[in-house]
Design brief:
single chain; alpha/beta; Inosine-uridine Nucleoside N-ribohydrolase, Chain A; 2 domains; 8-stranded mixed β-sheet; 34% helix
Length: 472
């Protein structure tokens, strides 16, 4: 029989073991950035200013994306791509190298990790070194079209894409095609030649491709869809490669930028070293930016679900503009009108967010975004709820806060989907706490509630949280 002291010691040991187990189960792993690859036809400002502009904006968000590669390649204005044009990319990266020391103050970062560690997984909020970004800038396919895909089209860019997909990392790779996606097409072709069908499928499943229209040809050939390697991707791999073909957000980004150019001249140009290399527009402003705004980790959307509207618009799977292949796209009504309306709604906030970051780049001080907490749940991933038709649900964002102590305002709204049924009426859409009744005929539907929160600080910055309600 155990003595009282021995029994007490065993109880203490067990209690400590249970406590340790519970503590470990509640330790949250640091949130990692989304993996991002950019394919850009960046060039002289008098030829291709919008890629320069989008590159500046991307660098101002280097703490939100793990920039795995920036690959210079062909686009509407260049076939072949002049290798000397890559110098314009390095100008932006070098400007970032100056401004990053101010940008780091936004998150209290005091130094950089070693390059070897930066090449590993990066946590959300970490600003990488200029040396890291430079090491990820490589040349891609110099020629456009499906006709060049083959053994003579391998490049440092296509090899890097294969290497990234082969890394032991479960995160998807978001590929933003500012020009043509010929470099990715070449990587897929090479894997198709060298690996089994199952291995090819696994390779394709790693990527999410967002194309700004179809630019795998020069502009005068833009309606010759069969010339583009994009059509091959959509035709042969639509079941395994998520391909978003945007025909709404990029047009609005261009047009709204021109209409609001005085704001860019006031708040972007000349602010920090990056503002010094931000050029005047030629046709439109930052037409390529929606490709990475779509993957922005701000709580508004999950880019693995293109039907969820985000700063890069919303899309549905179906026939693409070539009327032959399928893709996630938004070129037809009613979705084009729906996406257009949301793009106009979000534009002031996505511009203000950029302007606030350029203020940090220039001054090393500025405003932070608020933090949205819904039903006690902090984070940016969508919250899923179950509900029965006809019941009343409540949502509470009263624990939301602002890191700078600014005042907050609230707006709740349900996303509109094509061919959707009636949406619930929110009791007071500007309150911290809301209630709404699930429609009686909503069984089997999915309702998407968004909590949008602004602060009253400089630029009135925004944050979001999506709540997905599965109705039984």
């Amino acid at each position: 029989m155990l003595s009282l002291s021995n029994r007490f010691q065993i109880l203490i040991t067990c209690a400590l073991a249970i406590a340790a187990t519970c503590a470990c189960s509640h330790i949250e792993e640091p949130q990692l950035k989304p993996r991002l690859v950019v394919l850009t036809d960046i060039g002289p400002a008098e030829v291709e200013p919008d890629d320069n502009e989008s590159a500046v904006r991307l660098m101002s968000y280097a703490d939100r994306f793990e920039i795995e590669a920036i690959i210079t390649s062909i686009g509407w204005n260049c076939d072949p791509y002049p290798p000397e044009w890559a110098e314009y990319l390095y100008r932006v990266i070098d400007a970032y190298g100056v401004d990053v020391h101010n940008l780091m103050k936004r998150s209290g970062q005091t130094g950089f990790k070693g390059l070897e560690e930066e090449n590993g997984k990066q946590e959300l909020g970490y600003w990488p070194s200029m040396e890291y970004i430079r090491s990820r800038a490589v040349m891609g396919s110099p020629r456009a079209g499906i006709g060049v895909i083959g053994p003579d089209n391998n490049t440092a860019g296509s090899d890097l894409l294969i290497k990234l997909a082969d890394e032991d990392d479960p995160r998807p790779i978001y590929v933003c095609s500012w020009g043509g996606a010929n470099t990715l097409s070449q990587a897929i072709w090479k894997v198709q030649q060298e690996r089994s069908q199952e291995e090819l499928k696994a390779f394709l499943n790693k990527f999410r491709l967002y194309t700004i229209t179809d630019q795998d040809m020069v502009y005068r050939m833009r309606m010759n869809r069969a010339y583009s390697s994009h059509q091959w991707l959509r035709r042969d791999f639509s079941e395994d490669l998520m391909l978003v073909w945007d025909e709404s957000a990029w047009l609005n980004q261009n047009a709204l930028g021109v209409q609001n150019w005085d704001l860019y001249a006031k708040y972007i140009q000349g602010h920090g070293q990056m503002g010094q290399v931000y050029p005047h527009y030629l046709w439109g402003v930052e037409g390529d930016t929606p490709s990475f705004l779509n993957a922005m980790p701000n709580g508004l959307n999950d880019p693995d679900h293109p039907e969820q509207v985000g700063w890069g618009g919303c899309h549905q799977f179906g026939i693409s503009p070539d009327r032959i292949t399928n893709a996630w796209t938004n070129w037809q009504d009613p979705l084009k009108t729906i996406s257009n309306d949301y793009e106009h709604k979000f534009y002031p906030d996505e511009f203000n967010d950029f302007a606030a970051r350029m203020q940090w780049a220039d001054q090393g001080a500025g405003n932070h975004n608020p933090v949205v907490v819904v039903n006690g749940n902090k984070g940016i991933k969508p919250i899923e709820m179950q509900a029965k038709a006809g019941t009343v649900l409540r949502a509470d964002a009263s624990k939301s806060f602002d890191p700078d102590g600014d005042g907050l305002s609230f707006e709740w709204w349900f996303q509109v989907f094509p061919d959707d049924g009636p949406l619930p009426e929110i009791s007071d859409a500007t309150a911290q706490k809301v209630s709404f009744r699930i429609p009686d005929d909503a069984a089997g539907r999915q309702l998407h509630l968004v909590c949008e929160v602004h602060d009253d600080g400089n630029f009135n910055l925004v944050a979001y949280r999506r709540v997905i309600i599965n109705v039984k």
